[in-house]
Amino acid sequence: MDYLYDIKNISKVYGEGTGTTVAINSMDLQIESGKFVTILGPSGSGKSTLLNIIGGLDTPTSGDVLFLGENISEYKPRMLAKFRREHIGFVFQNYNLLPNLTALENVEFSTEIRGLTKENAKDALELLNLGNRMHHYPTELSGGEQQRVSIARAIAKNPKVLLCDEPTGALDNKTGIVALKILRNLNKTLGTSIVLITHNKEISKMSDIVVKLLNGEIVERYHIESPLSPDDIEW
Ligand SMILES: Nc1ncnc2c1ncn2[C@@H]1O[C@H](COP(=O)(O)OP(=O)(O)OP(=O)(O)O)[C@@H](O)[C@H]1O
Ligand SMILES: [Mg+2]
Predict the structure, then answer these.
(1) 3-class DSSP state of 233
(2) What's the pTM?
(3) Where is 80: in which H helix or E strand?
(4) Which atom of ligand 1 lies nearest, measured to the CA of 41?
(5) How buried is 69 (Cβ within 10 angstroms: 0-12 exposed, 13-18 middle, 19+ buried)?
(6) Residue nearest to atom 26 of ligand 1 (CA)
(7) Which CATH class is domain 5-232?
(8) Angle between helices 173-189 and 143-156 (to 10 degrees)
(9) pLDDT, tens only, 173-225
(10) Residue 213 CA: which ligand 1 atom is closest?
């Protein structure tokens, strides 16, 4: 069986000479399709770097990343862009909304490239309770609302994999739980694989697999037999 991801001995080194930072250090990780994975670890432990590499936004300095058996670390930028477009929904730590587009246009931008309709974009925004914010520009939205637009944008194109970098960081408990429920639901009903970064150990209790990073290395990896429902998480 091909794994969704088979990560083989990857390292990511930033900079050169004496100013180098090893963000990922000889890491191996396998992720099965359809799983909900959370990544825990302190600031600077390499979480975003790992997510960017498996999402095809960055390439490892050495090692291989196999996606369904395909070595994406050998891809040229054009192939990587195609890979991201076809398979990956990304929720960024800093939202990354396009400032000159409204909420709806931001979401449409991602559905259009996948050949989906305007309705897909509207549905996704409504799912995130943003029906009355569709025509607002990012600067007219609160941080939490922008974060929800970025979640809507990632899920609207119905990707095979959702990669989420602290998706609840800017949300209060109630809105955070709504967002987590939506993600959990997509995972359960459509089988969308999810890799989610969080600082919050409680949130990791609703995932199937927990991976803990420290200094660019995996220090712990465990399965959860009965993940909690988002309602039962104590924030
Ligand atoms: N573009 C870059 N150039 C140089 N160093 C970088 C770059 N990006 C990340 N780093 C370094 O790599 C290490 C890992 O960074 P990364 O962003 O992956 O951490 P993180 O676990 O996501 O942290 P946080 O929880 O604060 O978001 C850090 O030491 C960081 O300073
Ligand atoms: Mg980060």
Answers:
(1) coil
(2) 0.93
(3) helix 77-87
(4) 21
(5) exposed
(6) 43
(7) alpha beta
(8) 0
(9) 888 888 899 999 999 999 999 999 998 899 999 999 999 999 999 999 999 99
(10) 21
